[in-house]
Amino acid sequence: MRGIRKLAGALPVAAIICALLILGSATPSDAQSSRVLVSVRTEPVLPQPGDDVSVRIRITGCPPGDAVAEIYLTTDDGTASTSAVMARSPAITSLVFRGHADLVLKKAIEGWYGVRVVCGTFRPERKPMANTSFAVGAKPTKESRVVGTSVTVGGSIRLEGDGCPGSKVEYQIVSTGLHVGAFLPTGELPVAPDGTWGGDVTMPSGVGPGSAQIRRRCVLKNQLGDTVTINYGDSSEISVLRSGPGTPPAALAPPAPTLTPTAGP
């Protein structure tokens, strides 16, 4: 009789574990997606560019088994938004559908970050999940500028900036009015060890009289070894003048040009 009582007491526990395993393997993707919740905590609480940022991720709703947590950096230049994976790590999950992951952003780059979790049949888009965002740098520090407001066809204009932790800055120059989608570099400029960059760039032959848009982005390698680009704010617009006799000289920049902060916090 005593053995029967022990067996009877063990049955409910076994049944609960069995039910959890069945639920994790059989839950459809849409139903599971509605139950996966993620919370994020950083240390330091208000991280600044260059900090090593510890990111604690708590997960509710992932079944036992393989789960992965990723941190994305999202940038926007006013025309297109991009998200790049900056850190990735397996997540520890349990039979009670709870888990966690601890990741570190080494020498974090300024910008907006967010978390994506993959587990079971839960496969969200490759970008931060809703309500997982956190910022590195309370105020933007990366800046760039176009020195001058106009240029002749085929002439050159100077681009300058700072705050790039990479090896080069790419720029794109296109005529205003053209459909501008993907960033297709017109050229590039080297970055100094202190993150500053600058140089005179020639207007492309395909950009005629009228106006032109200039976009800039910093190119670097992240801690995963992947190439990442960080946009410098909205695109700048300049006037493109006809060359030849009677052409008014290009307008010079004022002594203290207005700087355009990058998109971000």
Plain-language structure description:
Residues 1-34 and 246-265 have low confidence and may be disordered. The protein folds into two domains: 28-136, Immunoglobulin-like; 143-261, S-adenosyl-L-methionine-dependent methyltransferases (Single Sheet). Helix content is 11%, strand content 43%. It has 265 residues and is mostly beta strands. It has helices at residues 2-26, 29-33; strands at residues 37-43, 53-60, 67-76, 81-90, 92-93, 98-105, 111-119, 134-136, 143-147, 150-152, 156-162, 168-175, 187-190, 197-202, 210-221, 227-231, 236-241, 260-261. Strands 10, 12, 13, 15, 16 and 17 form a six-stranded mixed sheet that branches. Strands 1-2-6-5 form a four-stranded antiparallel sheet, with no helix packed on it. A four-stranded antiparallel sheet has the order 4-3-7-8, with no helix packed on it.
